[in-house]
Amino acid sequence: MEKKNIDWANLGFGYIQTDYRFVSNYKNGAWDDGILTEDANVVINECAGVLQYAQTVFEGMKAYTTVDGRIVTFRPDLNGERLEQSAARLEMPIFPKDKFVEAVIKTIKANEAYVPPYGSGATLYVRPYMFGSNPVIGVKPADEYQFRIFTTPVGPYFKGGVKPLTIRVSDFDRAAPNGTGHIKAGLNYAMSLHAIVDAHKQGFDENMYLDAKTRTKVEETGGANFLFVTKDGKVVTPKSSSILPSITRRSLVQVAKEYLGLEAEEREVYLDELKDFAECGLCGTAAVISPVGKVVDHGKEICFPSGMTEMGPVTKKLYETLTGIQMGTIKAPEGWVVEIK
Ligand code: PLP
Ligand code: COI
Q1: What would the CATH number be for the domain defined by 165-326?
Q2: Would you say the CB of residue 225 lies under 6 angstroms from ligand 1?
Q3: d(C-alpha 262, C-alpha 274), whole Å
Q4: Closest by alpha carbon to 89, among 283, 248, 241, 247?
Q5: Alpha helix segments (H runs only) across 16-172
């Protein structure tokens, strides 16, 4: 199979239309079998639930080419599980996780020509999503839904690749204590748009959101969880019921313990303690692990000892081990890497 003529090494994190997408419709209480289609457009009624009341949830995952030329994806069962939880919270029907994994594999396979080659620095981003598709005008859940998966080849989420980021403590909140921060709903991202545009205007790469109730604890950024390393080499990740349970973060904690022999702890992290950490990173499917060099809290700079030129040593080891597992140079724990082809 011939690859598309794409400048893989210089891809940013953007949308490039690929050949096939998966579409399944939910009507009269049941999902149909779904099809692969070449039509990238969605045609829905002007009053569709998603357009009026933002009834939509999504996932983000990637397909990789391994060192020996196989195409694989990473822990798709966990994305399927999380989509089920997201859908339940927004009163949407469950797209069963086994069918989800099957559809993901089918869609990646159909777009094989767009899976970037090993070593290019790029990957195929996979975006499953679901939305209320029939007209809804009173505030209530839709009766009909569409589940789709498209793919797009991507490079690094942050421009500059692995150059440490500067982020600011945001005055805007991302998620309420009993709200929807723990699910992957479009509404969480819509409300972060003003904050990210403003952060960029002020020269920051991202926002650090605090817990909305006390504004003393670190939550996450608009699109990734935090990971910290203490001065004695322990990995610490923030615990909160209003952050997205990142699959990358959960995997990194296991990698830290089982591959690198590090201690790892999930606990509440106070803004006050940032100055005591040696390293900081953002982790997620899109972000992979992006190092943070500096956090700015209303003019006060908190500079991590790892500095502004490269990743800290522990972050780097975690990055290399995780990407090694994903690209097949390091043996993966059972079930983490699912072969497409
Ligand atoms: N937090 C938010 C808000 C996200 O959008 C993402 C991306 O999916 C993550 C964390 C990281 O999650 P994962 O590692 O499952 O991609
Ligand atoms: C992902 O990492 O898959 C996400 O959905 C985050 C988004 C900011 C691109």
Answers
A1: 3.20.10.10
A2: yes
A3: 20
A4: 241
A5: 49-53, 76-89, 97-110
The CATH classification number of 8-154 equals 3.30.470.10
* Pair 6, 153: CB distance under 8 Å: yes
DSSP string for residues in 237-294: EE--TTS---HHHHHHHHHHHHTT---EEEE--BGGGGGGEEEEEEEETTTEEEEEEE
- Ligand closest to 184 (CA) is 1
Task: For 107-162, write each residue's pLDDT tens digit.
Answer: 999 999 999 999 999 999 999 999 999 999 999 999 999 999 999 999 999 987 77
Give 37-92 pLDDT, tens digit per residue: 999 999 999 999 999 999 999 999 999 999 999 999 999 999 999 999 999 999 99
Q: Please list, in sequence order, all residues whose beta carbon lies within 8 angstroms of the beta carbon of residue 338, skipping any fewer than 6 positions away.
A: 72, 73, 74, 75, 76, 101, 105
State in Å: Cα 222 to ligand 2 middle: 9
The H helix count followed by the E strand count for the chain is 7, 17
What does the alpha-carbon distance between residue 180 and residue 183 come to, in Å, rounded to a whole number? 6
Q: Report the atom number in ligand 2 closest to the C-alpha of 13.
A: 9
CA distance 315 to 287: 13
DSSP string, 101-132: HHHHHHHHHHTGGGSPPTTSS-EEEEEEEEEE
Ligand 2 pocket residues where CB is under 6 Å:
60, 223, 284-286
Short-list 188, 53, 57, CA closest to 128: 57
Domain spans of the chain, in order of start: 8-154, 165-326
Distance (angstroms) between ligand 1 centre and the Cα of 301 equals: 26
CA of 298 to the centre of ligand 2 (A): 26
- Ligand nearest to C-alpha 221: 1
Annotated catalytic sites, by residue?
184
Instruction: Specify the ligand 1 atom closest to the Cα of 251.
Output: 14
Q: pTM score, two decimals?
A: 0.97
Residue in the structure block whose two tokens are 């597992």: 325
Place of tokens 């090694």: 324
